Amino acid sequence: MRGPAGFLLCSLLLVAPHCTEVAAQDVQPDPKTPCANWMGGAPGYPGHNGLPGRDGKDGKDGLKGEKGETGMQGPKGDQGEMGIPGRDGPRGFPGYPGQKGEKGEGAFIYRSAFSVGLTERAPHPNVPIRFSKIFYNEQSHYDASTGKFLCNIPGMYYFAYHLTVYLSDVKVSLYKKDKAVIFTYDQFQKNNVDQASGSVLLHLSAGDEVWLQVYGEGDNNGVYADNINDSTFMGFLLYPDPD
Q1: Residue 109, CB-side half-sphere exposure with 13 Å CA sphere
Q2: With a cut of 70, which residues of the chain have pLDDT below it?
Q3: Structural domain boundaries of the chain?
């Protein structure tokens, strides 16, 4: 078939497959439409989240950052517990002397003391021996005219006597309130000068009297004193009673 008819037939054969392909493309359903021109279902629900993955390996430390600015000072904290005492420090230098304090009154109030000696030879027996040589009697608690010590401050007292013995034996006793407390006896040795002594602690109340006295029949009063031999009697307050 040559000529115009043959050319037309060839043209139809070439165009026919192309038209068929175009038609086929035009009838493809759109999957995005609710009904895609075919029996498609509704969209499904989103699926569940999957399980977390495993931790990855630690990376390498980065470079040290720059120092930040100083922050604001925080509030004062609570006081901590006391720590263990530390070691003693070195000894300091001596301080300057302080000012002299005022004179106290207590020591003078409680003074009471006397010390006396004999001036007469052979005192009379059975009466208080009058020691008229005064060594100390600042408070005047000893009366030389009677030979007796009068207690003005109640408390504990110490009394002592040291007597020279000459010409005859000596028997003396220390009295408190008309009662003999202690006795001393010394036997005289011819052509010799001897000593007799005694001491005692006594608690006295205000108004109590203490003295020495020769006792016996009168032939035991060898208490002696001269310019080189003394017979003495003394006493003083050790400490007063509490108020």
Answers
A1: 8
A2: 1-40, 104-108, 122, 218
A3: 113-240
